[in-house]
Write a structure and sequence with these properties.
Number of helices of chain A: 13
CATH superfamily of the largest domain in chain A: PurM-like C-terminal domain
Low-confidence stretches of chain A: none
CATH class of the largest domain in chain A: Alpha Beta
Number of strands of chain A: 12
Mean pLDDT of chain A: 96
Radius of gyration of chain A: 19 Å
CATH architecture of the largest domain in chain A: Alpha-Beta Complex
Helix content of chain A: 25-40%
Oligomer: homodimer
Structural class of chain A: alpha+beta
Largest sheet of chain A: 7 strands, mixed
Largest interface: A-B, 63 and 63 residues
Shape of chain A: globular
Strand order of the largest sheet of chain A: 7-9-6-10-8-11-12
Chain lengths: ~350, ~350
């Protein structure tokens, strides 16, 4: 398995843009190296953090059918990137494309979803742009501030660091499984999928973490990317089923599928995954207890370029291969799911 | 003619969002009142300026067929909004949706257009997000900084103020006419349409202007909106043909159409229109001469709620009516053009 960043198609696609675009000379990190873009705010020692994401493929795939989900997720996806760099949000701007003739109640529900996600994070929509098009698409751009020296990036993880996550995983997988397999609401309803950007957690962890990334593409993709960027690997000690949040675990149990599938598929749950040098773990855990912030130590950074789950039995995953399977998700989600489960049986 | 903001459909559509979304308590202006959103940057007396726009309808209408134009315009539209508040750009983030299977050369040309527009304004793309969808759409968000007290908004114009624009107008109309009427490249080529965001002009004018707006929707819409916001009107002394830049005038002449059509249609040229109190015009004109910045005094703010062109003959336009015609542009551009010309014959 190649450990190069460019072994992953998504990384190659991003690199292709940067063969044409020039980098801001003061940008505080390289391409791929942070969840949000970081540049100095003129005349201060602050960094501006800014990040933009479009919700469209999730709608086309049928993952988000309710306008309130679309709005909630548009804001959350970008705010989660601010969380992963340790920023405090300053505001959000929205670019919304709706089909001609979209009714008032749909627009209101979408706006209410955005509003609820922003207010849950203590921030506001500042303004935006509306367009008419064939398909619904919402692009949210979140702007935040990080005090000097307090930014987290994806680089800096070293062998021996501890690995933490900010909450139970697998909600993204449950949401996707619900749509692809037409699961009943009693098992998992669309409204059960309401990830909350971990802004407080990000700011709490920033002084302690060596690296951070959000699980917007699931835990396996997040750790694979961190591994490639830092030339390290990961051992996860918690069993995959123990990593799942209760409702996602219930879906895995009801379907009798490998709980790892919920971590290896690319629809994420927007928790933070962070690495912390051994000398700082006690202080971080004390700080998180004091703040009442959930934080689970799930494993460690290792020197080998592996992604290994050690419980209930040792399984070494090929993160690159699992990520490449996901490129086909947009073409046929049921086929992707079958391929993922077959691949996990081999790994 | 109602002078209320909500007599214009686009304003009503924006207001509908704000019945659901709450405003940032420190936002330095109301809805509709600035080209970019302005909020304090924490811990400083600076304002953050941020604005987002999607290029999609212009592609669907056939106005932009070359990927380089799409990229150039995506960056320019947002940077122009920064110019209109007097901001200096800090950077741009991009969200790009391309059809599956878009070839490498198309993506490169689009990126080259974004890069060229950013570098022309001394700024950079910081990062972004790419998606696959049915139609090409590019959302650019521009982030800028405005020092305390130096921001321009759309409010503050008073009767007696002088009216200025930062350059020749009508390029947007020429670009649209080219597409709708299949004009030959020799008359107006797509590459002739390369508006440049007037950032230096915005910063130069900010200390003198009472209000500012860009002509992203054309001069008539810009002045109509400024008039509604400030409960004033405008008299323009320059003849419409004299307001047109040379290539746009050549198109108007070749088609033998009323040059006012190029100012009243909604595809803009991204100049700034600004109002300046009489006591500051001499200082502004001296400053613009010193800086080598083009600035044309074209008329004045008046107390009546009118939009009047005084040369070569007096014509009083119904800005609200002209803007409402433009709502049909997306459905049938040739029909819109005929309706616009017929309406201008009546006004």
């Amino acid at each position: 398995m190649s450990r190069a960043l460019d072994a992953v198609a998504e990384n190659r696609a991003v690199d292709a843009w940067w063969r044409v675009l020039s980098r801001h000379p003061q940008q505080a990190h390289g391409v791929h190296e942070a969840d949000a873009e970081l540049v100095p705010w003129p005349g201060t020692s602050d960094l501006l953090a800014v990040t933009t994401d479009t919700i469209a493929e999730e709608i086309a795939l049928g993952f988000y059918r309710e306008p309130r989900t679309i709005g909630w997720m548009a804001a959350t996806v970008s705010l989660s990137d601010l969380a992963a760099v340790g920023a405090e949000p300053v505001g959000v701007v929205l670019a919304v494309t709706l089909p001609r003739g979209t009714d008032e109640s749909t627009r209101e529900a979408l706006a209410a979803g955005v509003e609820a996600a922003c207010r849950a994070c203590g921030t506001y929509v500042l303004g935006g742009d509306t367009n008419t098009g064939d398909a619904t698409a919402v692009t949210a751009t979140a702007v935040g501030r990080v005090p000097a020296g307090a930014a987290m990036t994806r680089t800096g993880a070293r062998a021996g660091d501890a690995l933490y996550v900010t909450g139970g995983l697998g909600a993204g997988g449950a949401c996707a499984a619900r749509a692809v397999l037409s699961l009943p609401d009693a098992l998992y309803a669309e409204r059960d999928y309401r990830p909350r950007a971990r802004l407080a957690e990000g700011r709490l962890c920033a002084p302690f973490a060596s690296a951070c990334i959000d699980t917007s593409d699931g835990l396996v993709a997040a750790l694979d990317q961190l591994g490639r960027l830092n030339d390290v690997g990961f051992e996860v000690d918690l069993a995959p089923s123990a990593l799942l949040e209760p409702r996602a675990r219930a879906v895995a149990d009801a379907l009798s599928v490998d709980p790892l599938a919920f971590l290896a598929q690319p629809h994420g749950e927007f928790e933070l995954a962070l690495t912390v040098p051994a000398g700082r773990t006690a202080a971080l855990e004390a700080a998180s207890r004091d703040a009442g912030v959930e934080l689970a130590r799930i494993g460690r950074v290792v020197d080998e370029p592996v992604l290994r789950f050690t419980a209930p039995r040792v399984r070494t995953l090929d993160g690159g291969r699992l990520r490449s399977l996901a490129e086909d998700l947009g073409r046929d989600a049921r086929h992707y799911l079958a391929a993922l489960l077959a691949e996990l049986q081999r790994q």
